[in-house]
Amino acid sequence: MTPYPLTLTAPERIPTLSEIFRPVSRRVCQVDRALRSWPGSSSPVVRRMASRTISRRGKLIRPGILLLVTGHLGYRGHQDIFLAAAVEGIHLASLIHDDIIDRSTYRRGEKTALQKFGPDFSLLLGDFFFIRSIARSLSMKETEIPEMLAEAARMMIEGEIEELAESYNFNIGRRRYLKIIEKKTASLFQVTCQLACRLGRAGSAEAEALEEYGLNLGLAFQVIDDLLDLVGQPAQTGKPLFSDLKEGRVTLPLILALKKSDQAEHRKLTALLEAAKKKREEGVWPALSALIQNTGAIQETFRQAASFTARARSAAGRLSPSIYRQSLLQLTDFVLWREQ
Prior knowledge:
By secondary structure, this protein is mostly helical. It contains 16 helices and 2 strands. The protein has one domain (17-329): Farnesyl Diphosphate Synthase (Orthogonal Bundle), CATH 1.10.600.10. The protein has a two-stranded antiparallel sheet with strand order 1-2. Strand 1 and strand 2 (110-111) form a beta hairpin.
């Protein structure tokens, strides 16, 4: 991903997710199997749709984090497998609903549920995963866990609603943007750590550090996502450049470009954005990309993401040394320097 600010140098080698999650690799596979078993008792049509959706295995970052945290805390049992699957189910539901809102036909280079099943079926499929996730958590011994998952789902939906309400609002500020992504993305990372702490009986200092880790890692994850929308390689990200803006999403690079541009640049930028809003696409996107690059907004956006990962790294550094903590630290580098 280019360009990066010269003051920040990538590590010599970024570990892969399989390497990061190696301490819990068997348990991550168990989470995947648990998810695939979900449609088993449903009607044939639900089984068909759910199986085709689950078969496209994602990064499983959130389940991986939960298992790393419970591993670090010395948890012994199997409830973390079911809980990690519930967390991923909520994430999967949110992706399905996102694709409906954005009218996305592809995600990570593969057809979305919307493209496969149409808006009506895919909407209900997203609901199925939301409800199934909460229902699975009801069997947990910790009675607060379903409430925590439900609250995370509420925050995510609220964030999506707020983002939709700000469509094509070119006056949105950084603070408002950050509040929205905290709800729609970072909240699930944060609650993943909180849930693991509840299962693993974390002490107050550990719980505070891990909650801070999850929040900041989630914020960084979304900022990098928004950056990749402008400078990523479509072959790697699985979606065309400027997909967010085409759907009305005004993200941090654009917010900063508007703020940092001089008077002449601001006029050009505003004119290009209005043309994009009216779907007058010819020549808009290359000119818009060049103008955003010229303002230095790409570099500043990356620095913002780096600030979040630094906070996450600092929080994880307060934990006692373990192979699991090492993986949590490595994950901050992966999130910051990923290309998809």
